[in-house]
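Students often ask what a holo structure prediction actually looks like on paper. The answer is less mysterious than it sounds. You provide the chain, you provide the ligand, and the output is a string of discrete structure tokens encoding the 3D arrangement of the protein together with pyridoxal-5'-phosphate.
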Amino acid sequence: MKKYNFDEIIDRRCTNSLKFDFAERRGRPGGLIPMWVADMDFKAPDEVIDALKKTAEHGIFGYSEPYDEYYDVLTDSLNRRFGWKPDPAAVVNTPGIVFALAAAVRAYTKEGDAVIIQPPVYYPFSEVVGLNGRTLVTNPLVRGDDGVYRIDFDDFETKIKRSGAKLFILCSPHNPVGRVFSKEELTRLGDICIKHGVTVVSDEIHSDFVYEGGKHIPFAHVKSDFAANSIICTSPAKTFNIAGLQFSDIIICDAKLREKFRAEVAKAGYSQLNTCGITAAHAAYKYGFDWLGQLVSYLDGNAAFICDYIGRNIPAIKVARPQGTYLAWLDMRALGLAQPELNDFIINKAGLWLDSGSIFGKEGEGFQRLNFGCPRSTVEKALKKLETAVANSDI
Ligand SMILES: Cc1ncc(COP(=O)(O)O)c(C=O)c1O
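The corresponding structure tokens follow.
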């Protein structure tokens, strides 16, 4: 088996990289270490790169569609990874998961209807609700003294009853708090949703980044009646670091839910997929798992390194070891800074480009999200800068 070298630093500047190239356009100084938007600084598996080279060398980039074999490869890989083998006919492709979340909001709710989410959470969840004229209802996750977030089930059910919510957007594993929800937690959520007629959209884009002892369970596979009440958003984008190729697989087991969703995708004027996205996804799900296994061990090492480093050297910052995702959720409330000052401190004193906690909801105030999908030396450099900034401040 080839051994991949995730320690290699690859210069991503001047590649149209959102993460590296547009600091000034986004109102930040140059020279920051970018650890914000969730893509990784690693090359995709060799087989993916080779397949894309073959497509590029063919030189014709016409309209495209996946072969039937793609859906077999995808569903076989879901079976191997999670013990879940949906019918290949249940898969609907979209150019991305956020596109799918917006389509689902339109497909399963009417204007003004309530949609429930669990902040602090990936900020497009609230955006697709608000931008489509629906009402946002929140069931905030509760942070324990151990830094681990848990679900307030009573609040979840009360908010659903009070608002008459029709849709729940679940983030599983959860970005940014790094939770991998247990079977018991998912069962309780799903049972409440069925009881009150709430459809579940489960965003599982981070499902392949689960660490020691954790297990991701696709929501539709938690309990037999959940498949008919949910849509499962999966994608090779994060798993194989191909987000720019704009390709995702939305798995909708129930025929009625699927037809409503397809109708919304058609209304948005979307039909054929990006040919490079198809090529890459097919190669990734067929051949990419040796690479992925090595990557997940490497990222687990990064997570351990971060927790150890911060615990020993920056006690003012609290961080719980993420159970999943390649995102660390840093609790910086002890620095006593309001969010704008904290953001300024991170940029101008620490020289880092992180995601401000407050974009994930007011529950994220005083936090920063750090993307550790990068070589360990970059993580170490960033933490040293953070340590120095904290030490030099009069906070
Ligand atoms: C939970 C979650 N969903 C969706 C996305 C983005 O998916 P896409 O690029 O396919 O729209 C991200 C990216 O960070 C994410 O963290």
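The two ends are 50 Å apart (CA to CA).
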